[in-house]
Amino acid sequence: GAVVSQHPSRVICKSGTSVKIECRSLDFQATTMFWYRQFPKKSLMLMATSNEGSKATYEQGVEKDKFLINHASLTLSTLTVTSAHPEDSSFYICSANGQGNYGYTFGSGTRLTVV
Amino acid sequence: AQKITQTQPGMFVQEKEAVTLDCTYDTSDPSYGLFWYKQPSSGEMIFLIYQGSYDQQNATEGRYSLNFQKARKSANLVISASQLGDSAMYFCAIENSGYSTLTFGKGTMLLVSP
Asked: Which of A7, A33, A95, A102 has a CA between 20 and 30 Å from the CA of residue A72?
């Protein structure tokens, strides 16, 4: 079945630094990638949608300059949390759909802790 | 706008028993899809089952079945013969056909006891 590989699974960074999270579709071409944020014991909140080769579409209230999304190829999308602060600590998870994959395949998630 | 409501924050069931997790939805789209995902404590989202709005029959996948009542806008997940490994968070989601995104409910935490 379709697989999305997400790295890193856990990251701890210092306040003010930037962190990059990668999602790769391993066996299908991900024409669309979705990035979600999840607070403890809460639901998934969609942050942005990106189509390969074009700019991401951000949901209302999501700072596009803080959460940079790049989807330069059909198999790779990245989320960069710039100048991270403790309030950015959260669980971030990507999902993808595209050619050869019906539905939405999720990555395994990244737990970000900013200290 | 689309909305998913999961009214059960937590459910308890004994091993080998069946359990129903509730999900109601609201949408103005005539065509939509409904998904159920399982999220164990490790965090990954595991796809369980899908129901299309025009599907004539209720979806089934192994021990999972979906009780789809279109007129009542409900899509309840039924897990038969619960196992200890079923303990997890369960999310119902609706696909926005116009934008191809998923809107999730708040989830239901299922605990299966021996």
From this structure: A102
Taking contacts as CB-CB distances below 8 angstroms, the residues of chain A near B91 are: 43-44
Shortest CA distance from B51: residue in chain A: A103
Write the pLDDT tens digit of every residue in B58-104. Answer: 999 999 999 999 999 999 999 999 999 999 999 999 997 766 789 99
Tell me if A97 and B100 make a contact (CB, 8 A cut-off).
yes
* Dihedral of alpha carbons B24, B95, B10, A86, sign: negative
Measured CA to CA, the distance from residue B84 to residue B37 in angstroms comes to 17
- Asked if A106 and B44 come within 8 Å (Cβ–Cβ), the reply is yes
What letter would DSSP give residue B72?
A: T
Structure confidence at residue B98 (pLDDT): 67
Distance CA B77, CA B107 (A): 12
Strand A57-58 versus strand A44-51 pairing type:
antiparallel
Give contacts of A58 with chain B, Cβ < 8 Å: none
pLDDT score of B99? 61
- CA–CA distance from A2 to each of A6, A103, B21, B45, B112 (Å)? 13, 10, 26, 13, 29
Distance (Å) from the alpha carbon of B52 to chain A's nearest alpha carbon: 11
